[in-house]
Amino acid sequence: MYNLLNDYKLKDMKIKLQLVALSLFTLNLGIYAQEKIAELNFVNSCSSAIDFKVKMIEVDVSDSISSHYFCWDVCYQTGVLVSPGYVGVAAGDSTSQFSSHVNMSSGDTAISQIAYCFFNKAVGQSDSVCVVFDFDQNTDTTHTKVIFDVCATGVGALLNSNLIEVYPNPAVETLMFNGVKAQCKVVIYDMLGKAVLNDLIGISGELDISFLTEGTYMYQVISENGNVLKTDKLIKVN
Predict the structure, then answer these.
(1) Of 68, 70, 144, 225, which is the most exposed, with the fewest CB atoms less than 10 Å away?
(2) Hey, which CATH number is domain 152-238, 3.30.360.10, 2.60.40.3080, 2.40.50.140, 3.30.2350.10?
(3) What is the structure's pLDDT at 150?
(4) pLDDT value at position 33?
(5) Model pLDDT, residue 6
(6) Which long-range contacts (CB under 8 A, 24 or more apart) does 88-91 make?
(7) 192-202 pLDDT, tens per residue?
(8) Beta partners for 153?
(9) Which residues of the chain have pLDDT under 70?
(10) What is the pLDDT of residue 203?
């Protein structure tokens, strides 16, 4: 009888401890229960099949976000900026394999912005198509369509693009593009995707951005034949 009673007490204690652990786990989920998911339908509009990889750019991420990650061929853990794997998409075909996941505090009112740039595995990050997602408390799931139309890249352009350096960043009045071998076009987008600057740069590689308001932007360097040579984030300060 003594042993049975002790066994009962031990089992009762284990059950109580499990309930306490479950309560703590539930409480923790309550703090970071606001998972926001961004999904997209990715379309390959080129005339050949391409193996696509994706690069993540943290444009503006709130400190209250506990984790954020993306899924492409598989789901990658927080901290992976470029997908090690790839997804093959046939010419003219599409895929819905991509999703971005953000876990944020239920009391967070800040808007976090994360960009994803898709590029041809065989070519590299020089040719890419990017999309920026806004994450806040008002949006649970976002669906977007992205069309990849960067279909041809010359070897010379690729060699040049790998040498392009853009500085300073953050920038105040002037942006320098070092390594440009011929006249290129620079397009700067605000975080709503609107082009706020569309200008040509020569070999000097100097661009006046003094008129831009303070904030975060995305820019693209585009060659004369329409190839996107570089895509990245730009921070403008006063």
Answers:
(1) 225
(2) 2.60.40.3080
(3) 77
(4) 53
(5) 44
(6) 88/49, 88/50, 88/51, 88/52, 89/42, 89/44, 89/49, 89/50, 89/52, 89/148, 90/44, 90/49, 91/44, 91/46, 91/47, 91/48, 91/49
(7) 778 899 998 87
(8) none
(9) 1-33, 108, 126, 138-140, 152-163, 181
(10) 72
Which residue is it, tokens 């992205």?
146
CB 80 within 8 Å of CB 149 = no
The DSSP line for the chain is: -HHHHHHHHHHHHHHHHHHHHHHHHHHHHHHT-EEEEEEEEEEE-SSS-EEEEEEEEEEE--TTEEEEEEESSSBPPTT--B-SS-EEE-TT-EE---EEEEEE-TT--PPEEEEEEEEETTT-TTSEEEEEEEE-TT-SEEEEEEEE------HHHHHHHTT-EEE-SSBSSEEEEET--S-EEEEEE-TTS-EEEEEEE-TT-EEE-TTSPSEEEEEEEE-TTS-EEEEEEEEE--
* CATH code of domain 33-150: 2.60.40.2310
pLDDT score at 108: 67
Listed by start position, the domains of the chain span 1-31, 33-150, 152-238
